Every structure is written in C-alpha cells, then in structure tokens.
C-alpha cells in the first residue's frame, strides 16, 4: 500500500508497536520524530538511526495543558511534517468483579493518556496539517 508521507511524528515510539513501526518507516526512507517519556530510549533510537533520519522529543502526552506548546514547537522545528501518528497509550488491568479494587485516579490517568490527549493533539495539529497543499494525515 502506498504511504506517501515523508516526515512522521510518532507518539509512543520508545517501545512496542510504535518503536517497531518507526523502524519500518525509517527503513522506507521516512524521517521519524520519535516521542515518549523515556529519554534513554529516545537517545538510543537517535543514536542507532542517526540524526539525518530521525529526531526525538521527550514529552508526556498526559500533560494536556502543555500539548499546544508542544505542537507549536514541533511545527516550528519541522515545518515539513506531513503525518502525525498517535500510538502512545497504556493499559492496566481493571477488575470490575472487585469494584473495591478500582483506583479512580489510575482510571482517570488512563482516560487522559489514551483518550483526552488524542483529542488535544488533534486540535493542536489539525489546523497545520489541513492547511498544507500536499496530502497529510493524522493517524490514531
Ligand atoms: N500490544 C497490543 O496487543 C495492543 C492491543 C491493542 C491496543 N494497544 C495499544 O497500542 C498502543 C501501543 O501498545 P504497545 O503494546 O506498543 O505498548 P508499549 O510497548 O507499552 O508502548 C506504549 C508507548 O506509549 C508511550 N506512552 C505511554 N504513556 C505515555 C505518555 N503519558 N506520554 C508519552 N508517551 C507515552 C510509551 O512511551 P514512554 O513510556 O517512553 O512514555 C511507549 O512508547 C497502546 O496505546 C496500547 O494500549 C496495544
């Protein structure tokens, strides 16, 4: 399948699916801006692939108030960005057969990271992506 994008921001590129996808993108000549909280993983990623093929930004997407400034900085540093891939997330077990075990603060954090952050990221990046004359994408 054709994948026409040349520079992609991958949220959650420090492990798992996001890391594997990022390495596939780089192998296809697509520049990857890797995002996650674990600085060591980000540093290792850039060291492995080189700063001509990748860049890294340490950011916690659960900090909703910081998302507009984060997007602004990304756009300023990478005006040729044409794809935003929202893959970051977390999943803890929640046993509703034992409601007393449910921790509302953990569930709230999960909803913030897995859901509200995506809405905030879409709001922050869509005006930039939609204004571009070339094909762009926001993928979740
Ligand atoms: N694996 C599966 O079978 C499966 C199935 C369905 C859905 N999913 C979903 O797909 C996504 C990736 O899964 P995975 O298995 O690859 O998980 P993973 O290995 O735990 O990777 C999660 C990624 O999200 C990032 N992340 C988590 N919280 C973050 C935060 N607050 N700010 C920034 N980045 C954050 C992590 O980076 P840092 O820790 O460095 O911040 C990491 O790069 C998750 O949303 C998961 O729920 C996975």
From TrEMBL:
Belongs to the short-chain dehydrogenases/reductases (SDR) family. SUPFAM superfamilies: NAD(P)-binding Rossmann-fold domains (SSF51735). It comes from the Eukaryota. The lineage of its organism: Eukaryota, Fungi, Dikarya, Ascomycota, Pezizomycotina. Gene3D superfamilies: NAD(P)-binding Rossmann-like Domain. Pfam families: adh_short. The keyword Oxidoreductase applies. This is Short-chain dehydrogenase. The keyword Ribosomal protein does not apply. Keywords: Oxidoreductase.
């Amino acid at each position: 399948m054709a994948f026409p994008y040349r520079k992609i921001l991958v949220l959650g590129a420090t492990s798992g699916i996001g890391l594997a996808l990022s390495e596939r993108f780089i192998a296809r000549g697509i520049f990857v801006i890797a995002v996650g909280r674990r600085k060591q993983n980000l540093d290792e990623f850039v060291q492995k692939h080189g700063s001509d093929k990748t860049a890294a930004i340490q950011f916690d997407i659960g900090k909703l108030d910081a998302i507009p400034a984060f997007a602004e900085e990304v756009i300023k540093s990478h005006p040729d960005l044409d794809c935003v891939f929202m893959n970051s997330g977390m999943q803890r077990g929640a046993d509703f057969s034992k409601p007393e075990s449910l921790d509302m603060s953990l569930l709230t954090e999960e909803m913030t990271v897995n859901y509200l952050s995506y809405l905030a990221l879409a709001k922050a990046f869509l005006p930039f992506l939609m204004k571009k004359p070339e094909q762009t994408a926001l993928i979740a």
